[in-house]
Amino acid sequence: MASAAASAHIPSTPELCSAARPPLQMHSEHPERKRVLFVTSEFADLIKCGGLGDVSAALPRALSPQHDMRLLIPGYRQIVNSGRPIRIVGQVPGIAALPPCQIGRMDLADGLIVYVLLNHALYERDGSPYVDTHGRDWADNHIRFARLGLAAAEIAAGDAGIQWRPELVHANDWPAAMAPAYMAWRQVAAPSVLTIHNLAYQGLCDMRCASELAIPEAACGVDGLEFYGQLSFLKAGIAYARHVTTVSRRYAWEITTPEQGCGLDGLLRAKVLGNQLSGIANGIDESWHPESDPHLLQGFSVGDWAGKQANAEYVRRWLNLDADGPLFAVVSRLVHQKGIDLTLEVAEHIVARGGRIGVIGQGEPALEAAMADLGRRHRGRIGVHIGFNESDARRLYAGSDFLLMPSRFEPCGLSQMYAQRYASLPIARCTGGLADTIEDGVSGFLFDAPCAAAYRQAIDRALQVFEHPQLLEAMRCQAMRTPLYWRQSVQAYDRLFQRLLSPVSARRALC
Ligand SMILES: Nc1ncnc2c1ncn2[C@@H]1O[C@H](COP(=O)(O)OP(=O)(O)O[C@H]2O[C@H](CO)[C@@H](O)[C@H](O)[C@H]2O)[C@@H](O)[C@H]1O
């Protein structure tokens, strides 16, 4: 299944676990409290390949004071073997090529409830949620994730035997995007929301798979799931969800244009006309606190940079970097979207101007190899770690002066917000959520054209600021105040959920 191609890496071992989090505030007396099933393929406490994992760990928790938020996720090996007890609470039957599964329930230390879709053959494998240990898409991804979507619909229909039934289903990205479609075909009354974290990954498979996935024939046309001769999971979600959101306001507009619509812009424009598409920016998790983050060697705060310095020294030792020069960070999935090739092009310029570069990430094998080679050619000046772990990533955000993020497109981006919070000024392309969260010359540096020349100019502006300590200090302080925790976005999701669940909306859906 051509789907998560760019997620071609093995996930990191999550280190920020629920045990370290404060208990969730669940105000069960909240009058408008609704039951919401959040369907996802990643969850940073247990398994994370990128930003979706972070959002899945943070957003349901942030919404918990308002709603009874529960997760549904496949029972990957990393989850089943996580050491946390899983109690079997339900089951769903097989249909077509989608096998029967058990539903397990995991109660996390902070109170969050996670339903785990259990099927040993389907999910308990070495590798990542999307690819095997060689970075190849699992050949049966269409079965694995259609099964996830169908299980969500079965839970919403009250057919899974568990003593809990959501009033609303919130599906995330293509792996969960079949949920709204199965709900519609099964005439489940609960509304569904699809959040697009990245339109470029669509979950495409051969049209001939339709019968294996129990997709009604009538839904296989261009008005349904058909996408240039293939079946598209993401298109299914967009077509059938009651409402579609994406993760920044600007990206919500960008995906309605032919340039960034990945072939789905027409359908998305129709959603806009129906008031069914909105952009709700991601926030960052409360754990991103430079004074108290346990991952850091030493905490720091605005104006007190000793802790920042301690993290920088750690990073320089860890990546064998010379002690002098401004430190530029790359903390990223190494994929085309992130403009890694542009960073490869400008790296020598940074080094020539006295800068040092620290890289942590993994992704497409060719980009991993090119990065590793760059590090070998510039020992002491460019340090590259292929792989990922949360502690080193956080120390690199904290220890660096600048973050390089020349994304070709960026639905929201969390890395630039983490960097800002940790006083590392992002140098980023003016696109999507980057444009929404960085103020050029105030909390970071933006450039327009996706080319090395424009990128170099932004880097030069950053280097000029670095030479003026007062200016640098002012920008760092501004950046540290900029990123938004989830609180703001929660209000927007809450309003959306309440609107979709209002009697008027329910009546309209029936018409
Ligand atoms: N190799 C790796 N393995 C594991 N973790 C890694 C990693 N490389 C980086 N990370 C971590 O993953 C997160 C990156 O999140 P981003 O939102 O910046 O990008 P991503 O493209 O993954 O997310 C997509 O979804 C998010 C969430 O909606 C959007 O913000 C974003 O624009 C969209 O592309 C950070 O926590 C970072 O430290």
Automatic annotation (TrEMBL):
Belongs to the glycosyltransferase 1 family. Bacterial/plant glycogen synthase subfamily. Residues 319-464 form the Glycosyl transferase family domain. This is Glycogen synthase. HAMAP family: Glycogen_synth (MF_00484). It catalyses: [(1->4)-alpha-D-glucosyl](n) + ADP-alpha-D-glucose = [(1->4)-alpha-D-glucosyl](n+1) + ADP + H(+). ADP-alpha-D-glucose binds at residue 48. Its EC number is 2.4.1.21. The keyword Glycosyltransferase applies. Pathway: Glycan biosynthesis; glycogen biosynthesis. It comes from Ectopseudomonas guguanensis. It is an enzyme of class 2 (transferase). Signal peptide: none annotated. Synthesizes alpha-1,4-glucan chains using ADP-glucose. GO terms for biological process: glycogen biosynthetic process. It comes from the Bacteria. CDD domains: GT5_Glycogen_synthase_DULL1-like (cd03791). Residues 35-269 form the Starch synthase catalytic domain. Keywords: Glycogen biosynthesis, Glycosyltransferase, Transferase. Pfam families: Glyco_transf_5, Glycos_transf_1. The lineage of its organism: Bacteria, Pseudomonadati, Pseudomonadota, Gammaproteobacteria, Pseudomonadales. PANTHER family: GLYCOGEN SYNTHASE, GRANULE-BOUND STARCH SYNTHASE 1, CHLOROPLASTIC/AMYLOPLASTIC.
